[in-house]
Amino acid sequence: MGCRGALGCCLLAALSCCLPPGCRGNITVAVMLPDNHLKYPWALPRVFPAILMAHEDLHSKHKLLLGRSINILNYSTEDPAAGSCAESRAQVVAVDAKLYIRPDAFFGPGCVYPLASVGRFASHWKLPLITAGGPAYGFDKRDEYRTIVRSGPSTTKLGDFANVLHAHFNWTSRAVVIFHDLRQDDRPHYFLSEGIFLNLKEENITVEAQPYEDDYKYHKDLINFMKERGRSKSVDLK
Q1: Which residues constitute the signal peptide according to the record (predicted)?
Q2: To the nearest whole number, what is the mean pLDDT of the chain?
Q3: What is the CATH number for 165?
């Protein structure tokens, strides 16, 4: 079994063991992920087979279910027309799941905006939500996202690295973060830069953000921007 299956096995075992010892009922898990495996590493075609393999491995080899059974249901959080994650669809799926199947845990969503909404619901319902996505800085707010468990990377850690880099080279005055932002779908470069931007601000470094788009005129403005500020600031280009 590969690393994905091993991770899924550990997560399912943890779900089983955290229930009261006298419980012998089903554990229901709602898997909420997008379908587009070419765009998202946490898409259903990639992740769901690993979860099923982990379930089979738990049941047949490790005997960790303690007499319980796990019922795994999968739901798409993708807008079929746009081919991308949809926050509104994720909200509806989560509420319907809570009303009609009463899950014991959520796996996903992975995209930032759907995860933010469903994560707040899960915290209110006191249900664990496990995701390989959600790298954004905002998910570090444990008072708001109390039940989210992230197994993937975090932009907060990237921001910590930027702080160490500035300390190593004694860059103590100013920095500029330049990033590509199309303001659609999951905005990965925006959230990647956010972790760096906010971590540097906490170190009392003056930070300026400069987003850019694909239009040619923005590229010219970007080059001029870097020429004007490049000698006085550290530049981080995304």
Answers
A1: 1-25
A2: 79
A3: 3.40.50.2300
